[in-house]
Amino acid sequence: MSEQIENTANREQQINDKVWLFGCLIITAAAVFVRFYDLLLKPMHHDEGVNGFFLTTLFHEGVYKYDPSNYHGPTLYYIALFFTKIFGLETFSVRASVGVFGVLMVALVFFLRRYIGSVGSLVAALFLALSPGMVYISRYFIHEIFFVFCSLGIVLGILFFIEGRKPGVFANAWMALLLLVCFLPPALNLVHLFDLQNQTAIWILRAGFFLVEAVLVFLVMRMLADWNEGRPVYLLLASASTALFFATKETAFITIGTMLIACVCVWIWRRIYGAILDGKIGEDDYAPAALVWKTFRERMGGGTDLLLLIVAVAAVFVYVSVLFFSSFFTYAEGVVGAFKAYAFWTKTGTGDHTQNGLTAYAKWLLKLESPIMFLSAVGTLIAFVKARHRFAMFAGLWALGLFLAYTIIPYKTPWLALSFILPMCVVAGYGVNEMLKARDSALKGIGALLAAMSIGILGYQTWDLNFKRYDDDSMPYVYAHTRRGFLDLMRQIEYYAEKSGRSREATVEIVSPDYWPMPWYTRQFSAANYHGRIVPANTAEMIVAKKGEQDAEIRRQYAAHYKSAGEYELRPGVELILLVRRDLAETASTKEIADPAAAEMNNFDLYKQQGAPPGGGSPQRSIPEP
């Protein structure tokens, strides 16, 4: 009889597992769809254009030099380099290099099943998949998504190490990939020491290095598998994630500090709560191991094992950090710059983007992430009232701590909110899980209703933001974004370039002081020259100038030789004018012009009666400095 009951329970568990796995598949598919569907819909943001500039240099010249006074860490460019070498230097491939980690972040949340419940992990992952901000920034070529992904990687690595879990297929795959990334590119660079001219010989030598590295990686993985049944792999992955975290953005220390404070606060709360209830705190019915320092210390082992593990963790952190900041051992100054960065960004944090005010994040979340914000508060409250689910309390404090930290810091941009939206989704999923497993049917109904309403609201808001109002400045995540009309400008430039018969060799003089992300879109134009000021020109096929600020100079310099082909909004408060050489503009059929407004502009001379420009000719192609 007992065997029959056990078999029935096993069958029910298998059914539950199948349902859960099916839910994982559907949620992952939804995450892929909203992150990759029509990925080219919105034009590149100013920041994407700047990142694209660095990537283009790395792609063509193999050079990237980390500069602590500008922009963020190197990881974004090397990840994108991998994608562009396979799929080409295109907008889709660079954005896909970010979107992939947006999807992987959703997938990693499924591994929290043992800590927030089966339903909780599905709901948390679905919230993350549908979060308007997560989706919007996942479709951006900036650092934030990989940065947040690394924070989750750190947490999971430490959780699984404390749990004493043996590494599975995914953990071993990530470890092997990490080893290949760490050792293969430097080894391939050794080919240059031989000064070979024959391309066949070069590729044979590279293939040889690859085989040697593959064998070494295999041997290292075998050693790790034999070391305490492979369990240290998770701590090594957490160490690597921490190194990549810092190599992505300088604000990593804020998250790490918040996590440590959250751990201490959980311990303090359980002490206080236990004293109030005379030690009657229920056992954690989720976590497979007690998430306390004692368990962590036991997993570390003692003697030689302890020393070896500490050295290995430190070595991984230092090696991965130096590897990326030194641009794979080609730029030693980058390592020094990694330390200097904090002085620069301390100034930035108090001086830039301070116009949004103290309550900016609260307003932004209430407008577009309110279901997640509300349910994360409910989940945190439930966790602290029960006081036995340490991870749920940690996630609630992780979210609250980062929200407060970024609220206090004067520097505020919408994408920074993603750092606390991640733990908000996790603890919100936990809250729904606890309501649905309650004995009270009314509470179950409330939980189901709140989850359904939240999913519906998030789904609508995600679609509205990402596919309808993606350049509407009234939306929180649309932060000085390039207007959709900018793509019409680029189509016009392509049109007239083809009409000139010179195609991508046509000369385009960009005299507007505001032009990003145009360098990304003109990267294949060999004669796209960025001046940032009015220059003499009468032979270039096209000129791009700024409306308003440069009107008088446009009339004086270009009226005799150029006609307007339309006005295009770059971003709020900045409009560009496309000027086309008269002979080219007059041969173009009105029907062939993509933009009706531009066709109308060609019917008259906007800048007539102003005389001929002094001199002419075109300067050498210039590369814009971001």
Question: Mind explaining what this structure looks like?
Answer:
With 626 residues, the protein is mainly alpha-helical. The protein has 25 helices and 5 strands. A 5-stranded mixed sheet has the order 2-1-3-5-4, with helices on both faces. The model is unreliable at 1-15 and 589-625 (pLDDT under 50).
Break the fold down into its secondary structure elements and pairings.
Blueprint: H1 2-36, H2 46-61, H3 75-87, H4 91-109, H5 113-116, H6 118-130, H7 132-138, H8 144-163, H9 169-189, H10 199-226, H11 232-246, H12 252-276, H13 293-300, H14 303-325, H15 333-351, H16 360-368, H17 370-386, H18 390-408, H19 418-436, H20 441-467, H21 485-499, E1 507-510, H22 518-521, E2 527-530, E3 542-546, H23 551-558, E4 562-571, E5 574-581, H24 582-587, H25 596-601
Helix pairs in contact: 1-4, 1-6, 2-3, 3-4, 4-6, 4-8, 6-19, 6-20, 7-20, 8-11, 9-10, 9-11, 11-14, 12-18, 17-18, 17-19, 18-19, 19-20
Largest sheet: 5 strands, mixed
- Lateral arrangement of strands in the main beta sheet: 2-1-3-5-4
Q: What pattern of helices and strands is seen along the backbone?
A: HHHHHHHHHHHHHHHHHHHHHEHEEHEEHH
Mean pLDDT: 87
What does the overall shape look like? Answer: globular
> How helix-rich are the residues, as a percent range?
55-70%
Could you tell me the radius of gyration in angstroms? 28 Å
Total helices: the number is 25
Q: What would you call the structural class?
A: mainly alpha
Number of strands: 5
How far the N terminus sits from the C terminus, by CA atoms, comes to: 74 Å
- List low-pLDDT spans: 1-15, 589-625
